[in-house]
Amino acid sequence: MSSHLQITHLRKRFGGLVAVKDVSFDVADGEVVGLLGPNGSGKTTVLNMISGALLPTAGEITLRGVRISRLRPDRIARHGVARTFQLVRPLPSLTVAENVLVSLAFGRFKHWGPDARDLAEEKLAFVGLGGRGGENVANLTYIDQKRMELARALASEPALLLLDEWLAGLTPSELQIGIDLVRRLQSAGMSVLLVEHIMDAVRALCARCVVMNAGEIIAHGPTETVLKDPGVVAAYLGDGHA
Amino acid sequence: MNTTVAFILAAAALAGLAIAPLFLNAYGIGLLVGMTGYVVLASAWAMFSGPTRYVSLATVAFFGIGAYTVAVLSETLPYPLVLLCACAIGLTVALIVGLSTLRLAGIYFVIFTFGLAELIRQLVTWYEVNVTGTLGRYIFLPFEGIHIYWQLLALAAATLLLSWWINRSRLGLALRAVGDDEVVAAHAGINVSRAKLMLFALSATIITLVGAIQAPRWVYVEPAIVFNPTISFLTLIMALLGGATRLWGPALGAIPLFLLFEWLSANFPNYFSIILGVFFIGIVFFLPQGVLAKIEGLRRPARKAPPENKERSGAA
Ligand SMILES: Nc1ncnc2c1ncn2[C@@H]1O[C@H](COP(=O)(O)OP(=O)(O)O)[C@@H](O)[C@H]1O
Ligand SMILES: [Mg+2]
């Protein structure tokens, strides 16, 4: 069976640095897969290549059998890939609702007009920002900007969602809300590739994990097995993470 | 409701402006022509540069193309066809330039557009001297100032209407997103290059038309007159002063500044360029968002300024 997202022999070189070397894995339909690894191991670079922000040096990425590597990011978005950014990137001259409207208007289904306004409000309510669409994004707290960015990603009705440390920086109670949000997406059938450092969240959400170190996959499999892997423990400890 | 009232007011103002020259002498009409010309130039400039924040100094390249097209074709083709040719040439140049440069970011785009205007001026000069063997050309069209004014006024109304419509459209939202963060815009599904190209071409075509319509005013044109870079700088200053992201901003910047610059160039012709430069620096330093935004900011003092734009072209 052809999987949802399939990554084969992916490689990215920045000048003399090979940030991603021969990475292959896949994400099945409706699956939430964790992508772990110490800082600088190449996780964000992998997401950037999936979303089209960066061109791979070599390798292929397919979504439902369609090759998306080498497409422009807007084409990839319209194929059903959406993402959040490790450092939030709100559109500051747009209101909160307009930030979400952008994805509605140009995403997979091109909503516009009153119908799009309603959908934007619906997405904002889903992430806990109901009724705040008229606000200036600069007035949102960091966490609320993260929520808004998730609403913006969801507004394009993606088939695959890429979350880059979306849960980082949340308080314990916010973290629980965040985990529940991702769970609801999962039960709605969305596939998610979750880059995350918070192990509780990874355990709660991902049945399967891929662990990278220095651009290479060092472990791959069921979450509990992978997290006990001596190589994985060493990579994290070596980088100062517990 | 509000929109209806605004439209009625705008239509009444337009009617008033249309009959105004009937009560003015030739000098007054001349001022109206210049002022309306700059209202269109600044509004058309802001149509692209306002939301995207790409600062273009190519205004005079297109303005000059319009004027020269009229100078070359006015004897051989009927006037409406001449205007159509000018539009077609302006549009073609804009598409070529846009395709090759809209990937440039920030200062590189500014420098390129400035260079483009100079390049076209030199090309026209070279062609006239070496191929046609003349430098200047005469334009004999049976237009008086008032006819030119009416054409420009119609173009101004059309331009503002178009800007208003774009602002409310999906394209307007796309451009504002692109101006904030091209990477995010692209990831939301916006074809960034196409959105920029469309607006750049539209803006350039309107600017070309201004040059074409104003050309008969000069009677005699040569490259140094119609490709004068001051036109680009004035347009930019006017749009920035009024506020390039507002519908009425560029027009409100253009009117007082045009009158001021008229007065300055009449009274202090030798210092005109220096004063222009000081003005430019002053506006960029003190009113980067324009006067309208400043006034709104005074009314709503609690509003926080948006955070600095993150690196706009870098990958995520
Ligand atoms: N655009 C870029 N240009 C040059 N080097 C980069 C770029 N993006 C990432 N890198 C480098 O690639 C390596 C992997 O980075 P990244 O993918 O961000 O790691 P992670 O997300 O796992 O922390 C790092 O050494 C980083 O400095
Ligand atoms: Mg990262």
Q: How many strands appear in the DSSP assignment of chain A?
A: 10
Tell me which ligands are bound: adenosine-5'-diphosphate, magnesium ion
Summing up helix and strand content along with how strands pair, one would put the structural category of chain B as: mainly alpha
Please give the domain count of chain B: 1
Q: Main β-sheet of chain A, in a few words?
A: 6 strands, mixed
Q: Please name the two chains that share the biggest interface, counting residues whose Cβ lies under 8 Å from a Cβ on the partner chain.
A: A-B, 38 and 28 residues
Shape of chain B: globular
Give the distance, in angstroms, between the N- and C-terminal Cα atoms of chain A: 37 Å
> What is the typical, i.e. mean, pLDDT of chain B?
87
Which value, in Å, is the CA radius of gyration of chain A?
A: 18 Å
Count every helix of chain B, treating DSSP H or I runs of 4 or more residues as helices: 14
Secondary-structure element order of chain A, as H and E? EEEHEEHEHHHEHEHEEHH
Largest sheet of chain B: 2 strands, antiparallel
Q: How would you classify the helix and strand content of chain A by structural class?
A: alpha/beta
Q: For the CA atoms, what is the radius of gyration of chain B?
A: 20 Å
Average pLDDT taken over every residue of chain A: 92
Brief description of this entry?
The complex is a heterodimer of chains A (242) and B (316). Chain A is α/β, with parallel strands linked by helices and 242 residues long.
Give an overview of the whole structure.
The complex is a heterodimer of chains A (242) and B (316). Chain A has helices at 43-51, 73-78, 96-106, 114-126, 142-155, 172-187, 199-205, 223-228, 230-238, and strands at 5-14, 17-27, 32-36, 58-63, 66-67, 81-83, 160-164, 191-195, 208-213, 216-222. With 242 residues, chain A is α/β, with parallel strands linked by helices. In chain A, the strands form 2 sheets. Chain A has a 6-stranded mixed β-sheet, with helices on both faces. In chain A, a hairpin with a 2-residue loop joins β9 (208-213) and β10 (216-222). In chain A, α3 crosses α4. The longest helix of chain A has 16 residues, at 172-187. Chain A is globular. The relative contact order of chain A is 0.18. Chain B has one domain (2-228). Chain B has helices at residues 2-19, 26-52, 59-73, 79-101, 106-132, 145-168, 170-180, 182-187, 192-218, 223-226, 230-242, 249-267, 272-286, 291-299, and strands spanning 137-138, 220-221. Chain B has a two-stranded antiparallel sheet. Mean pLDDT of chain B is 87; it is low at 300-316. The interface between A and B is medium-sized, with 38 and 28 residues.
